[in-house]
Amino acid sequence: MYFLGIDLGSSSIKLSVFDADKGITVAAVTVPEFEMDIVAPKFGWAEQDPNKWWEYVKSGIQSLGSKQHVDLKKIVGIGIAYQMHGLVLTDENMNPVRSSIIWCDSRAAIIGNEVYDKMGHESCQQKILGSPGNFTASKLKWVQDNEPEIFQKAVYMMLPGDFIAARLSGKAQISTSGLSEAALWNFSKGTLATEVLHAMGLPVDKIPEIVPNFGFQATVHPDVASQLGLSSDVKITYRGGDQPNNAMSLNVLKPGEIATTAGTSAVVYAVSDQDVYDKENRINTFLHVNNTEAQKNNGVMLCINGSGILYQWLRKIMSTDRTGLIAYEALNAEAAKVTAGSNGLRFYPFGNGVERIFNNKNANSGIQNLNFNIHQSGHLIRSACEGIVFAMNYGFDVMKSVGASGEIVRAGNANLFLSPVFREIFTNTTQTTLELYNTSGSEGAARGAAYGFGYYASLDQAFDGLKCIERIEPNPVLTSQYQEIYQEWKNHIKLES
Fold first, then answer.
1. What CATH fold (topology level) applies to the domain 304-438+467-490?
2. What is the pLDDT of residue 159?
3. Which of 23, 160, 193, 219 could form a disulfide with 465 if both were Cys (CB 3.0 to 4.6 A apart)?
4. What is the pLDDT of residues 70-91, one digit of tens each?
5. E strands present in 85-188
6. In what order do the strands lie in the sheet with 266-272?
7. How far is CA 320 from the centre of its chain?
8. What's the pLDDT tens digit per position in 409-422?
9. Cα 246 vs. chain centroid, distance in angstroms?
10. Cα–Cα distance between 429 and 431 in angstroms, integer?
């Protein structure tokens, strides 16, 4: 049996076909060829066109058939992972009524803060484990306040992955885990957080059908199946936000286990069986994909907006006057020529919207201590990697303070973790052992679909074939050096007043 995994990111969309009988991925594609555009109509805003997502998903599926020679009729289940916290508003026919306000858009942060004060901090912490912040519910309120005509046209609010599922099936749905990402899940009651909707003055009828993360959610619409070359009865059997899904892809399912990723944003994600929260809202807690009434599993997450997007920016800047973009391998090779600390050059990677680890405030971004006679391209690249890891470690320290930590961190062999330099900086700054796995978010979504379909009896069984390909231990000398450099870096963070 084949299962299709779709991973909708903000830079690209990855698709994998997983052969559950053999336990291997038989084909994978990434679309489009270059990173998807993020439109910023105003400073701090970030939008993408959901219709483009859908076109790329369709072209990706068709490419799996025409170029990878996959028999698409063998696909029986689909799993969808997606960029978290975005808002998609559609009409009754699943057509978007405006562009998606995506995860790194900062415009609604003030709304979340106001509702946090209105509901009472303690009440919010008990119910939704923090503040509505800049999450999907606050973005929905922003549309209601600032674009009332569009708000009235909207029949359903969804997260990005829900939109893809809706275009596939013709049915509007949202998962329990998705509601927690939107700041619309009451953890104490295990229900939709109507208290948040009420405080914001939002109607409940825009919330679509609520479904579990795993199981038979919907059947792909016959017309869509025919258009894409799929079987007429293929089912959607799993959906999850990209970070919970990434953790699941690495078999991070039990309390005390930790996953990390460094794509467009950088994330550390720990599983806990407690309703933990940070009173300053610097980290966030969501339902993990395998949470059930019988077994509580929450995902405690820190997020740094400026991660891979900083590396992409450097790549573009350093490719000026080239016929094509410089290879990431070339950037990594330059960084490897430079010693720890980048000869005093410090990079602050906070140029992609407000940062949660700083209470949704803007922090200083850019370069410090630049010396034109000393610093070359390698220093710039390594200092960028160090800045990203230092920001991650800042949040990791917060996670430790609420009891969500561990000594082993798992990551996929992808994005920034492809860089030996980045891995070295990460291991020695966080003082953890890093385990690398040859998997991907789209493969994880496909394995999740297989479990949701009932092919596997348990999630543990679904990940039996997952193997660690490399284990990196901290180096005592580098650990000592990086603790000193990190403390100096941290002391020069500047926040907006």
1. Nucleotidyltransferase; domain 5 (3.30.420)
2. 98
3. 23
4. 999 999 999 999 999 999 999 9
5. 88-90, 100-101, 156-158, 173-175, 185-186
6. 284-287, 298-304, 266-272, 258-262, 408-412, 433-437, 468-472
7. 30
8. 999 998 899 999 99
9. 8
10. 5
Residue-wise pLDDT tens digits, 191-248 = 999 999 999 999 999 999 999 999 999 999 999 999 999 999 999 999 999 999 999 9
Single-letter residue type at 31: V
Residue indicated by tokens 């699941």: 248
> What span, in angstroms and rounded, lies between the C-alpha atoms of 126 and 145?
27
pTM, two decimal places: 0.90
Tell the residue number behind the tokens 């000594």, with chain if given. 407
Q: What type of residue sits at position 399?
A: M
Please report which confidence band the pLDDT of residue 351 belongs to, taking 50, 70 and 90 as the band edges.
confident
**What are the pLDDT digits (tens) for 164-190?**
999 999 999 999 999 999 999 999 999
Q: In angstroms, rounded to a whole number, what is the distance separating the alpha carbons of residues 5 and 400?
A: 33
Residue type, 287: L
Alpha helices in 135-287 (DSSP H): 136-146, 148-153, 160-169, 176-181, 194-200, 222-228, 242-249
Tokens coding 428: 């020695």
**CATH 3.30.420.40 domain position(s) in the chain:** 2-249, 304-438+467-490
CA-based max dimension of the chain: 65
Structural domain 2-249, CATH architecture? 2-Layer Sandwich (3.30)
CB-based contact 285:277 (threshold 8 Å) = yes
Q: Which residues contact 131 (CB under 8 A, 6 or more apart)?
A: 112, 113, 115, 116, 121, 124, 183, 281
